[in-house]
Amino acid sequence: MNYKQNQRIEQMTDATLLVGIDIAKKVHVARAQDHRGIQFGKAFSFENTASGLRHLLSWVSSLMRDHEKEHVLFGMEPTGHYWLPLAYLLRKQGHRIGIVNPMHVKKSKELDDNSPTKNDAKDARVIAQLLKDGRFSEPHFLEGIHAELRVGMNLRDTLTRELVRIQGRVINWLDRFFPEFTSVFKDWEGKVALLTLLNFPFPAQVASFGAEAILSTWKQQGVIRGVGMKRAIQLVEVAKESIGLTSGTKMAKQELRMLLDQYLQIQQQMSELTEQIQEMLKDIPGTSQMMTIPGIGWITVAGFLSEVGDLSKYDHPQQIQKLAGLNLKENSSGKRKGKTHITKRGRPLLRALLFRASLPLVSNNQEFRDLHLHFTTRTDNPLSKKQSLIALCCKLIRVFFALGRKQIAYDSSKMRMGFSTKLSNVA
To answer: What are the structural domains of the chain?
Structure first.
């Protein structure tokens, strides 16, 4: 179906059955009507199971037969993750799907009955009305390797958050039982520091074993570079003067052991997952060209494609910009002209990824750095640094789109086209 609202409305004919579905975890509710808004039957409830889907399609078929409809459009809110199984199953069976903005449902629910009442049957009716008015969009279903990539990157984000949590708990443990440890080892995640925590977690143990025994343990484990007797003596000296807790050490030792085991396990899982994601990227056309941008690595490219999907499904990079919620909004009335902001309506993970990617670009990419300087110092409508970074996010989308679609390497001269004169004036 077409992207513009007028063209979506024109596709609603006498032969179209509109079905609005209110999504829930266990039981969905559907309402049906025609393109004029005339309702057919009562609300229909069905379970979120295969048999429930069969009951829904049987109900829809009977309505189409009774009211002489030839095709159907299903509409729903993208409620969390609960809508995905139903939407994928309907799509798999060849049905058209439209998703409506939950904010639109909330704002328009009083139009028919002038009542703030909210229930599943009413929400399904409102969704069907929004379909009638063309106020919906078609979801871009990820398939194949792009679907695998999204799951993989979501899993990587989960592991990253879990790793940060465990790192914080280890630091908490050290602050309680061995606060002087970080004065000897600046990074407790280093190989020698981890080996020490596994074998000599408490100051009393370090002091009792002595520097020679500690150094011998390091060497037995194959750690001989970057450490020596001087480091071992320093560790023993701070251990003797430690103010760490000396009570509850039995369970504290168990706590540290569990934390370090989890830490090492997640590190191993992260390494395996990284290898798998990098292998997937090799099979997606255009990814190697996208990574030719100075300051852009595989994590940014993988995250971008996991959120956007197949670039060939888009006609213009502005569609991706809107998907990220980076399109502009303005509140003006009469002679008053309000400030312009980004809408922030879209995929927040995509928006955050682009913003994080713009920071190293300003440092490591000469063209983006010059653009940032131009945006913030131009005499006509200079931008703040944050506004400039948002503009660079939109520029990065256009660059990704061009490199990925055309499968061409990054060309710094093309980046400067249209800006060469302005940038030279700034310099």
So the answer is: 5-132 (3.30.420.40), 147-279 (1.10.287.4070), 287-426 (no CATH)
